[in-house]
Amino acid sequence: MILFTSWLFLVIHFVFISASEKLISLDCKNENHGVHGQKSLLECVVKSVTPVSIQALTWKRVREDGTLLEYYEGKTLTTPGFTLAEPDWNNRNLNVSLLLTNTKMEDEGEYECDVLTDGGPDTIRVRLKVTAKYTSPVLSSIPKNNIKENQPVTIFCNSTGQNGMIWWFDMLDQNCTHDAELETKENNDGLFSLSSRLTVQKATSSNSLYTCKVLSTTGFQKETASFQLQFDPSSMKQNLPITITLGVLGLVLFLFIVFLTAALLSQQGKKSEKQVDGSSDVLLTKKKADASV
Ligand SMILES: *[C@@H]1O[C@H](CO)[C@@H](O)[C@H](O)[C@H]1NC(C)=O
Ligand SMILES: *[C@@H]1O[C@H](CO)[C@@H](O)[C@H](O)[C@H]1NC(C)=O
Ligand SMILES: *[C@@H]1O[C@H](CO)[C@@H](O)[C@H](O)[C@H]1NC(C)=O
Q1: Ligand 2 contact, 156 CB (< 6 A)
Q2: Which residue's CA lies nearest to atom 9 of ligand 1?
Q3: pLDDT, tens only, 193-226
Q4: 224 backbone φψ class: left, alpha, beta (φ>0; ψ -120 to 50)
Q5: What does the alpha-carbon distance between residue 53 and residue 56 come to, in Å, rounded to a whole number?
Q6: Where is the signal peptide, in residue numbers (predicted)?
Q7: Alpha-carbon torsion (171, 177, 179, 184), positive or negative
Q8: Which of 204, 213, 126, 117 is nearest to 164 (CA)?
Q9: Cα-flanking dihedrals φ and ψ of residue 159, to 5°?
Q10: Going by CA atoms, what residue is nearest to atom 12 of ligand 1?
Q11: Which ligand has the minimum distance to the alpha carbon of residue 142?
Q12: Integer Cα distance of 238 and 245 in angstroms
């Protein structure tokens, strides 16, 4: 008899538990993705076969065991930066998603949502992954300008964002990362300052455009910028003045020849005219002489 009662109790207990488990459950996105400085959402809804209302709700950080948001007896307590995603939420709204209004790197981690409804309780853990966008890479070189052919040059590429890598490519799209050195510094906001210095042993104006690519290890975030080395214009355009000088000289020579030819021709013309004049003079004198005879 005692055995039967305890068996019955067990059955009832089991039926109750499984029934309550079936009645409501938290349906959440396990892996959530946020970006530093932006809003992020921990998406969670209460699934129920019958209409239920929420009696209590808690969102907390697993690591610190710190409560971020609490709803109980019609009141909601929040921590700055954390709120329920649904505007004007009430306890009949089963979307209990948590909104982070300004995500920081340190918000990455595990969160727990506990809910108690008139259809039963449920608890679930979800994760938030936070990445940070890179600032537009700032490039510079030493020397800055008047670079000579085959001179060694150092190029810098600086950016701030999450921890990551910097790759380098030249004008021919060749990976020259092996000639670069990366320096990383963590700032107090959890972001990293990345600075890569590329050493070009022999800079040449025929391959003078360098591209730096900043990227996170996951490849989630990336940023690219290019840099043109400033070569010494006199060493680069050496042939141009020579061409101009030769051209001008040629033109002067040509004009001189033309002028000379013209001058010679006109002189010859005058001479023949004089010769004609002369002969007529002779004729005239001859005629005069004949007349006098
Ligand atoms: C929950 O609410 C948020 C904010 O309004 C919304 O972005 C999200 O899509 C909702 N989720 C579901 C499953 O309805
Ligand atoms: C880039 O970072 C390096 C190392 O921190 C620094 O020496 C250099 O001045 C920076 N360059 C620019 C343009 O900010
Ligand atoms: C470029 O070179 C670096 C280091 O040598 C390497 O890790 C990276 O995968 C290369 N990237 C590409 C796109 O080839």
Answers
A1: yes
A2: 43
A3: 999 999 999 999 999 999 999 999 988 899 999 9
A4: beta
A5: 9
A6: 1-19
A7: positive
A8: 213
A9: -155, 155
A10: 95
A11: 2
A12: 12
